[in-house]
Amino acid sequence: MTVRPLVILPDAQLRLISEPVSAVTEEIRTLARDMIETMYDAPGVGLAAIQIGVAKRVVTIDTSKDENAKNPTVYLNPEIVWSSEEKRVYDEGCLSIPEFYGEVERPDRVRVRYMTLDGETVEQEADGLLATCLQHEIDHLNGVLFIDHLSKLKRDRVMKKFTKAAKRDAA
Prior knowledge:
The protein has 171 residues and is an alpha+beta fold. The chain has helices at residues 26-41, 128-141, 152-170; strands spanning 46-48, 58-61, 73-83, 87-94, 97-107, 109-115, 121-127. The strands form 2 sheets. The protein has a 5-stranded antiparallel beta sheet with strand order 1-2-3-6-7. Strands 4-5 form a two-stranded antiparallel sheet. It starts with 25 loop residues before the first helix and ends with a helix. Keywords: Hydrolase, Iron, Metal-binding, Protein biosynthesis. Belongs to the polypeptide deformylase family.
C-alpha cells in the first residue's frame, strides 16, 4: 500500500468527471488499498479517486470514530438512488481544500447503489455523517466540490486564497 499525493485546489483535475469502473481488476484493488492508506494518512473520513489524480468512480469511506476499529468501505460506481426530503447542515471540510470548512445543507438520508470489490452490486441506506460523506465523495466523482454548495462570495474567496497559495508554492 502506498500513500499517494493529494490533488489540491485550484488543480483543474478536481473538476473532471470520473469514468465508471468496468471490472474489478488488480489495478482497481491496488487503487482502493492506496486510497484507504492515503485517507488514513491525511487523516480523513472519505476520499474519491480523483483526489489522488485518478479519474475513476472509486470512493473510500470510514466514519468509525475508534482509531483501533478501522472499518473502511470501498464504493465502486456509487450513485444516489434515493434521498430524503429532510435536510441536514454539516460543517464540511475536504482533503483537497485543506484547513477550510463550510456549512453545507444536504439530504439527511440517502440510499446508494454501488459495486463492491467482489463485483457484487449492493444498496446501502445511510444517515448522519455517512450520508453527508457519501454525497460529498459522489460529488467529487462528478467534478463538484463542497464549496460549490456555498455562497458565491465564500466560494470566490476560497478560490482566490488557494490560487494565490498555488502561485506562491510554484514560485
